[in-house]
Structures are given as C-alpha cells and as structure tokens.
C-alpha cells in the first residue's frame, strides 16, 4: 500500500505562463545615448572646443573693434553666431555618419531595431546640443558685454532683440538638421561635409551670376534665407521661400538618408 506526499507537491511554485509585454527603449534614453556618442569622440570634443574658442574670439574682436555706440549685447550675440553657424552643423553630420564609419550600427540596431527612432534620436540630440551651445554663447556675450561697459564705455543698455536671438537659435537647429540630413544621405563623414559646405554655396553663386535663374533661385537659396532669419529680418514674403528651401535642402536629403539607412546592412 502506497501513499503520495501531496503537501510537498503543492508547495512547489509553478512558473507563470503569462509573459510580460515587451517594452521598447524610451526615446529620451535613446537621445541621451546619441548625445553621449557625440561628446565622447575626439572629433566631437575638439569641434565643441573650436566652436567655443572661435565664438569667444569673435566676441572679443567685436568688443575691441566696434564703435562704442553700436556695441550692445545683441551685436555681440550676432558676432558670436558666425562661428557656431558655420561649425555646429558638422555635429549633425558626424552624428549621422559615426555609426557607419565606426561600424557600430549593428550594435545600435540590434538594441533598437526601429531605425527611424534611432535617426530621430540623433536629430533631437544634435539639435539640443546646438541650442545648448547657443545658450552658452549668449551667456558668454553677456559676460563680455559687462567688460565692454566697464572698460570701453559701451552702451550700458541690456535690451536684446528677441527676433535676433530667436532667429539665431532657430537657424542653429535648422543647420544641424541639414547636417544630419546630408550625413544620412551620404553615410560618409568627409563626403557629407564637402557636400554640405559646397552644394548650397555653389547654388547661391550660380543664382547671383546667371540672371535667367536669379528670381526662381530665391526660392532655393537656403543660405540667404537663413542669413535673413538669423538677423531677425524675416518678412511675410520670406517665410514661404524659407519653407521651400528647407524642403529641398533638408527634406530631400533626409528622405534619401532614411531610405538608405532602412535598407543598408550595418
């Protein structure tokens, strides 16, 4: 005669058959990782150092050479924006091409297979970094404006042209997005940088030298429109031209880049 030990069997926990629903990586975590990639490399670090040094030098040069009546906080911000508007878009280029140059795209897309989210995280982090650099530049301009007031009898008015400040910040974001777009379209850092610097400039030169295309070329001259935006001189007629130029110089390369990255093997 045998008996079964039912108490011992009942005490063994059974594994749950309901699996927890999969959760994706939060977008802000993706953006933070992409931001760290942009800051961890030597190229990214030295590019930011170069932007800071050039911006500081341009502000100091403006303090020394400008007429005292025209030396204001707004004028210092405008002077500093020249260097950052030229170099900050390169951060966007490197943010888009670093995965493919360093061959880390396989790791990134294994952790987050949705490539569009990764691309949007790159755009968000690079644009945020550009805005942060702009804010630091504005603070640096304020500091040197104090020096100009105390040492060079500059205008002690702290009024600032919000159209200029907002225009510079928006221009920085748009240029960084253009850098990301060209980086995605070419997936090669040197080629993307050359294309970003050369193609819009060549188009601007052609529009100035060939009279037959001068009027329609105004709708595709991104450099001219962004210069107007950064100076706070946008009018009702300028906004449609800016939108068309953005669609051509950011929208088209961004679309090509998204198509390429969606189909290219890491």
TrEMBL record:
Coiled coil: none annotated. This is ABC transporter permease. The keyword GTP-binding does not apply. Residues 1-10 have a biased composition (Polar residues). Residues 1-21 are annotated as: Disordered. Keywords: Membrane, Transmembrane, Transmembrane helix. The chain crosses the membrane at residues 45-64, 84-102, 123-152, 158-177, 184-206, 239-259. It comes from the Bacteria.
């Amino acid at each position: 005669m045998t008996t079964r030990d039912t108490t011992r069997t009942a005490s063994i926990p059974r594994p749950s058959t309901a699996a927890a629903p999969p959760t994706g990586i939060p977008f802000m975590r993706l953006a933070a990782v992409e931001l760290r990639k942009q800051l961890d490399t030597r190229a990214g670090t030295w590019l930011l150092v170069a932007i800071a040094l050039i911006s500081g030098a341009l502000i100091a040069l403006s303090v020394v050479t400008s007429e005292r009546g025209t030396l204001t906080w707004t004028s210092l911000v405008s002077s500093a924006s020249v260097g950052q508007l030229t170099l900050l878009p390169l951060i966007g280029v490197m943010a888009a091409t670093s995965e493919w140059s360093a061959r880390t795209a396989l790791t990134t897309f294994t952790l987050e297979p949705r490539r569009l989210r990764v691309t949007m995280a790159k755009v968000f982090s690079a644009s945020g970094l550009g805005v942060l650099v702009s804010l630091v530049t504005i603070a640096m301009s304020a500091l040197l404006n104090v020096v100009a007031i105390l040492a060079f009898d500059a205008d002690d008015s702290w009024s600032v042209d919000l159209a200029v400040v907002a225009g510079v910040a928006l221009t920085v974001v748009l240029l960084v997005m253009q850098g990301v777009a060209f980086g995605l379209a070419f997936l090669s850092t040197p080629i993307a940088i050359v294309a970003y610097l050369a193609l819009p400039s060549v188009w601007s030169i052609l529009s100035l030298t060939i009279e037959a295309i001068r009027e329609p070329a105004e709708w595709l001259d991104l450099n001219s429109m962004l210069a107007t935006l950064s100076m706070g001189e946008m009018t009702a007629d300028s906004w449609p031209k800016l939108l068309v130029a953005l669609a051509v110089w950011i929208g088209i390369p961004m679309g090509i880049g998204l198509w390429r990255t969606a189909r290219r093997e890491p």
